[in-house]
Amino acid sequence: TRTLDGLTALLQGLDLDEIPTFPSADPLRQPVDIFHAYLAVALQALVGCDAQQAYDSITPANTVGNGDLDIVLPKLKLPGDPNLQDLAADITRNFPAHPLFVVPWKDKAHVRFCLQPKALPRILLPYILDRGPSYGILQDPDSPDPPSDQKTVLVEFSSPNLGQDFRTDHLRSTILGAFVSNTYEAMGWHVIRTNYLGDWGNHIGLLSLGWDRHGGSDEIFSKPPGEAFRAIHDIYSKMHDEMEPKIAAKRKKAKEKQEGASPVEEEEEEAIFAERAAAFKRLEEGDAKEVELWEKIRKISVEYYEGTYKKMGVVFDDYSGESLVCRDGKGVQGVEEKLKELGISEQDEHGLWVVNFANHGNVKLGTGTLRGKDGITGYLLRDIASVLHRHEKYGFDKLIFVVGEQNQHFQQVALVIKLMGLPEIEAKLQHLTFAKNPSVPIWGESGLLGDILERCEQYAQLAAADSGAFPPRLQVNEKLNTLGINTLAIQELNTRKGNKGISTSFDGEALMLTEGETGLGLQLGYARLCTAIDDIGSSSGSSSSSSSSSEIDFSSLWEGSWIEVLRLLARFPAVTNAAHKSLEPGPLLTYMFSVLDELGYCLDDVEEEDEAGGQESDGSKFAARSLLFRSTKQVLENGMRLLNVTPVS
Ligand code: ARG
């Protein structure tokens, strides 16, 4: 079924002519398009319209309850403005018997069609199994030669700050960013996964101060990355705890001053602010000692993160970070010169270089600082320079920032780039945002990604020991660990979907739920299917799986949940397309759980039959079911791969 000729041969068995062609039909990738094309021709013959018009009036049904294909009568645009209700009745009544469809029904201005159960398994099951990991996916990730017109997307996600906590928004960004990257890859894009480390800025100055005050030493760098990272993080945390009240007091004072409540005279600022800035300034100016320390800290932190992300199935192509455009000075300096030259930036009353967006037609964006006190580079300046740097390096067609909140910041970045006379680059930027949910602490608040993941592993172990829902095949520590981390990913993606049952992430209780739309639910359903496939394999012998689909009697799949699973499987490519377009994981998750629900009924049937002693080996039934199960397994795996979870069986 990999070629049109192959598909046509398959369809000839059903007394059909060659597949009708339409420009927007993609029968080799979307099985529903095969049905769509034949339906268009039948409709054309019936109402005498143009074939393309007929094709365009048909859409895939929005829910399974509405059938599989839907003629939307207003879209047919028939001359003479016929009464649509009457037209629906006419079409329904006169639609000739067709090998691919059951009798349609009318629904206001729609005529709805279900795919013919007798045809569906014969076409779809070989279709899915022939495509395997690339069913629902445009580009097989392992295929050797990418298309010549392949586009490049940079997906920037996770991006924690050196020394600082790995926050909830970093975690969400990691999980969402991995999903976004996968959907692009699935649609044939060249994807560069980028981690824009917060490896430059005032906090590095603070870390350097802490290094001297809280026992930093070279010994730390000879420890394994996990231990070294924890030691660095500890040092930073001590400084952070010292700073926090001072920052709060400073903010309070600034606010009071603004409101006129406090005397206006300048007060002495706490010394640590100046010390922090001075340390960072030394680094920016290339002071050998500061640079050496920074390099060592950065190196071991990246090592730690690489190993830890790997447990989540995330591998970055690039850890460029904020430092990249600052270290040689040229990146940021070039931008600054240009901004001055074009009159986009200006010096404010304190001598800082800023962009006052009110002067550029956007009052709402306020003022953005390019260089702060003492001439230190700012976050905004670094981001602008790194967009331009990356554009030069990768020539990307799209750059997606997966970052919680920071909406104003990314609007500022985009506007400055546009003002610089680069609207074509600005048009390629997209900020995928989400709420930070700061009220939810990460367990134990250690602030280390590795600790969060370990906690998930423990939860999975606990759930396995407690719930009795885990089959023996999953009772293996290594598998449970993967499962725990997968579960976190599913929970995070589900939270984005707005799942009511789980209002926050980092909820251990919720992570251990084995039923419903949860990570464990997904994995247990998948494992149950794997067990069923093994069972069928051992009771039906090896002959069935090798028989070609034209010899198989599919009649056991023509009804009940069996046909419902098939109808769902046919939709999978449309679901992955939609996931790519919206970059939302919700519909894909919903889809996966509906497949598992329907499949669950099929598996219940099988178990009941087994208990009733129905082993009198019905070869063709086994063969048909085995194909359905294997196809379903493939679809679940392809979906999981997009969601960035590892199927555990
Ligand atoms: N490191 C930043 C933080 O922790 C996130 C970086 C977001 N990406 C960017 N291009 N500014 O908040």
From TrEMBL:
Q: Which residues form the signal peptide?
A: none
* Example GO BP: mitochondrial translation
EC class (word): ligase
GO CC annotations on file: mitochondrion
* One GO MF term attached to the UniProt entry: arginine-tRNA ligase activity
Show the SUPFAM superfamilies listed in the entry: Anticodon-binding domain of a subclass of class I aminoacyl-tRNA synthetases, Arginyl-tRNA synthetase (ArgRS), N-terminal 'additional' domain, Nucleotidylyl transferase
Q: What is its EC number?
A: 6.1.1.19
Query: Which InterPro entries has this protein been placed in?
Result: Arg-tRNA-ligase (IPR001278), Arg-tRNA-synth_N_sf (IPR036695), ArgRS_core (IPR035684), DALR_anticod-bd (IPR008909), Rossmann-like_a/b/a_fold (IPR014729), tRNAsynth_Ia_anticodon-bd (IPR009080)
Give the record's keywords alphabetically. Aminoacyl-tRNA synthetase, ATP-binding, Ligase, Nucleotide-binding, Protein biosynthesis
**Residue ranges annotated for the DALR anticodon binding domain, each copy included:** 522-647
Q: According to its UniProt record, which reaction does this protein catalyse?
A: tRNA(Arg) + L-arginine + ATP = L-arginyl-tRNA(Arg) + AMP + diphosphate
Write out the similarity annotation.
Answer: Belongs to the class-I aminoacyl-tRNA synthetase family.
Protein name, entry field: arginine--tRNA ligase
